[in-house]
Amino acid sequence: MSNVKIIADSTCDLSPELLETYDINIIPLMISMGDITKKDGIDVTTDEIYRWSDETGQTPKTAAPTIGDAVAFIEPFVKEGLDIIFFGISEAMSATCNVLRLAAQNLDYDRLFVVDSKNLSTGIGLQVIRAAEMAKKGHTAEEIIKDNEEIKDKIRASFVVDTLTFLHRGGRCSGLTTLLANTLKLKPEIVVVDGKMDVGKKYRGNIKSVLLKYVQDRKEQLLAADPQRVFITHSGCDESVIKEIKDFIEGLNRFKEILITRAGGVISSHCGPNTLGVLYISN
Q1: pLDDT digits over 214-262, tens only?
Q2: Does the CA dihedral 110-116-117-119 come out positive or negative?
Q3: Counting beta carbons within 10 angstroms of the beta carbon of residue 256, is it exposed (0 to 12), middle (13 to 18) or buried (19 or more)?
Q4: Which of 93, 174, 262, 270 pairs with 124 at a CA distance of 20 to 30 A?
Q5: How far is it, in rounded angstroms, from Cα 211 to Cα 205?
Q6: Which CATH architecture is the domain 4-29+64-152 placed in?
Q7: How many H-runs (helices) and E-runs (strands) does the chain carry?
Q8: Rounded to whole angstroms, how far apart are CA atoms 71 and 228?
Q9: What secondary structure letter does DSSP report for 12?
Q10: Distance of CA 84 to the CA centre of its chain
Q11: Per CATH, which fold does 157-281 belong to?
Q12: Kind and range of the H or E run holding 137
């Protein structure tokens, strides 16, 4: 039985099956739709978010968990006297990591280690699963954190958005850029660099051909990636597109695991439907 408990926030976009397999517990971020606030992944689905957004022309506001929720979340593990490692969404994007630090202070507990993933979505998920595997093998919290320091900057997280409307509504993208991109039918690649979102390549065309091109453009990097696993994470894409992308990656004969996950409420709120990314660790 490991003395290390791995926890994360809901933006890591791991499926219920993966959370169960690796014994990972999740604290939800908050999603405000007008004057109603809901918990990500518990009270609201991504499809409900899209519907509300289209009806109102607004994007939900997202926020860190409350201190009260964070205290209640870690308290059972504190009572067991476990070493707790929390992986949170990039501190450049959210106050979630700090809320967990404050929760540990409230409980006067000094064995909660907060890791700023400097990432989002399954860019966090890659770190979380790796840590959970090490915990199962009996590694100490310090060993797991040292390993994460070594691989954190090698996480490659990027995705292509079908429309900039959601990023714009959420204040993540200037109006002019949105107008131009949507008029020109541009589909930009968003890349996570040092914990922040940046624009990479700009694609043009229908979303299916764009997503295939985006993955094909990553062929050399994928062939040089850590072979353990790769994520295909999407915010509600056509099954046939996901299958083609999976087939392409399978054809590289590189990865032991190709994991497909659907992005949760927070990530989907900011990027909108038909977004897809391929996320992996570079060697």
Answers
A1: 999 999 999 999 999 999 999 999 999 999 999 999 999 999 999 999 9
A2: positive
A3: exposed
A4: 174
A5: 10
A6: 3-Layer(aba) Sandwich (3.40)
A7: 12, 14
A8: 34
A9: G
A10: 20
A11: Hypothetical Protein Tm841; Chain: A;domain 3 (3.30.1180)
A12: none
